[in-house]
Hints:
The protein is built from 14 helices and 17 strands. Among the domains are: 5-71 and 145-214, 3-Layer(aba) Sandwich (Rossmann fold), CATH 3.40.50.300; 294-479, Rossmann fold (3-Layer(aba) Sandwich). The chain has helices at 46-54, 88-93, 103-113, 129-141, 159-171, 183-187, 210-248, 252-269, 334-343, 373-378, 386-395, 412-426, 445-454, 466-469, and strands spanning 5-16, 20-31, 35-40, 61-66, 72-75, 147-151, 175-179, 192-196, 203-207, 294-305, 308-319, 323-327, 349-351, 357-360, 430-434, 458-462, 476-479. α13 (445-454) links the parallel β15 and β16. It is of the alpha/beta class. The strands form four sheets. It has a six-stranded mixed β-sheet with strand order 5-6-7-3-8-9, sandwiched between helices. A five-stranded parallel β-sheet has the order 14-15-16-12-17.
Amino acid sequence: MAxxxxxxxxxxxxxxxxxxxxxxxxxxxxxxxxxxxxMGQNGAGKSTIFQLLTGVARPDEGIINVSEKISIATARQVxxxxxxxxxxxxxxxxxFKQKVYDIDPRIDAVLETVNLSxxxxxxxxxxxxxxxxxxLLAGALIQDPDLLLLDEPTNNxxxxxxAHLTDFLKNYEKTCxxxxxxxxxxxxxxxxILYLDVFTKKVEQYAGxxxxxxxxxxxxxxxxxxxxxxxxxxxxxxxxxxxxxxxKGGKMRILAKRMRDLAEEMEEDKADIRREDKTxxxxxxxxxxxxxxxxxxxSSCSVIKNHKSTTRKVNISLKKNQHLLLSGPxxxxxxxxxxAIASGESKGSVIAPGIKVGYxxxxxxxxxxxxxxxxxxxxxxxxxxxxxxxxxxxxxxxxADLINSKIGNLSEGxxxxxxxxxxxxxxxxxxxLDEPTNHINFxxxxxIAEALNKYQGAMILVSHVPEFVAQIRIDETLDLGK
Length: 482
């Protein structure tokens, strides 16, 4: 029945281990047929809420009511590493608990829905990041769920891909909950917002489109701040009077105690203000010392069209303080080229001897997921100074509570911040960045853009976010789509 409540969180609390609370007595509900945005800072626990909904995780306290017989499917942020070696057919078969014998026509239909053409025997790992994002969405849609959960679905998608996904969601008639930092994308279809506050561990629920809700949140914060300011003033007056009466002695001390009790009651009446998400501190990625002459030369590259690779002649020469933007649609071969350059296996590219390469991969495969954060940061440091390591980590919101966590246990956004911290400590001469805005809280992006703008080594950047690229000095563009 349209409009009925199909999800209800009732006083739900959840924590990882003994000292990492995620949710604290959370209450919210979702009605059938609505499209809801789930927001919150990196590491707040948004993906955890998805795990609780699907039964992958269980609450420590409280009750999660999900309507009987409703099916749920999740399009995750990244394809699990153990599925990268699967063929397209095997990937979709794995979406079902039981073998589906007529799966090929269903695959064709769902691939058409996400605007992706692919042979069924092609390996998943051979797809670009944007194409893998479409596969993830298709893997959820092929299950025809009553509730669709999308975790950062615009990551890796080019402009055309985001437009296609937006149109699909506008016309989608079932229930959908989306985690995303893309404001314009969200505003196109959102009916309401669930905001998970990383500080209070509570979920605030708002109705309306994205921009209207942001105004509501801002107005609420201003109102609560004004109320608290007035209460603070009155509380201080009560405390001053209490001190005055206490010094008088005798019966006045009883009055002084009453004043203190009133002050304490008023402290409890103060509204819990939703503190703004913390933003990473401004930082610099130091370039390798003594850079001179040509750092990278690209004379040819492979371009992929209609699943076929052709070689294209180019003439790119990067020296110190020169930034190259590599552009083109999903699947054209941008990530493949970056990987080949970084590994030294590109036949048409030459990196000068002695140049350190700092490589930010969109799938974080340069990180060892079994390492702790501390071990990962130490591994790129020439001088392993603990104080410098911890100070750098803290500037990327990686405090004492996370420094000894395994990389694999971090959220995707936190993995991204670790990857940037590694670049700062590594001091590369050639910086290669493949979609560095993916998974990152939008509040951090201007800080990251400024750091890349000031980087004085040679740099290659791939990004489908024009607003981000516009903040960075680009000296040359290589468009593989032309």
